[in-house]
Each structure stands twice: as structure tokens, then as C-alpha cells.
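As a warm-up, study this chain.
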Amino acid sequence: MSETTPLTAPAAPRRGRASAALTGARVLLALFLGFSAVAKLTAHESAVESFGRMGWGDGAMYTIGCLEMAGALGLLVPLLAGVAAVALAGLLAGASVVQLTLLDPPNAVMPALLVVLVVLIARDRRDATGELVALLGGRIGRTFGAGQWTKR
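Now compare it with the structure written out below.
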């Protein structure tokens, strides 16, 4: 009679407090961006007024609202959160510049601080972003075949 050791699942990696805090911040940021997007997508008077002060049309307001909503939803999907954070860093940097140059310079601080937050989120989610790239790389490779882009 041989002794057998029971099979156990490997221990899940422990997430640090900073990572857990960033997960909470990710959800709060998604809510904030979602509400901001809804104001733009429903043409709330405050959004219309802001875009009017900048001299930008409704198309810009709806486009930025869609980008904010996509970023907010992306932050809530763990596999997409890193990519969404990188994209939002650009969007928020642009918002900071717009606040600084076209609207109210003191209000440029908030989007600038949020850029720091999304960079931290992107760094925290880099493993998941690597998984996403590998997943997409495998699908693209199977779809187009090796060397497809270099054949003439």
C-alpha cells in the first residue's frame, strides 16, 4: 500500500494592499468616467456649455463621451483594464491640456492627477495586458498565417 499525497490546487498569488487599493480606485474611476460620459452622450447642458466655450461642436462632445464610456467599461474588465488605462492616460492628458489652455487652468489639476492614477493602474495590470496581447497575437497569427504581411 503506497502513501499518496492529496492533490491540492496551487496557492493563488496574494495581491498586495496597493494592488487591492488600485482595484478599488479602478472601479471608482470607472464610475466617475461613466457619469461623465453619460453627461456628454445625453447632451447635458453643462457638457454642451463646456464644449461651446471651447468652440467645439457636438461631434467632439459625443466622441469624447464614447471614449470615456469605452474606457470606463474597459476598466471594469480585468483583462482589458491595463489597455483601457493606457488609452485613458492619453484622454486625460488631453483633458488637462484643454482645461489649462481653453477653460479653467486651476481645473487642469484633476485630470493630471487622474493620469497618474491610470498609469499606476496600467502598471498593476501589466500581466493581464501581456495575456491579452498573447491571446490576440495567437488569433492574428492563425487568421493571417505566418509572414502574411511580408508576402507580395
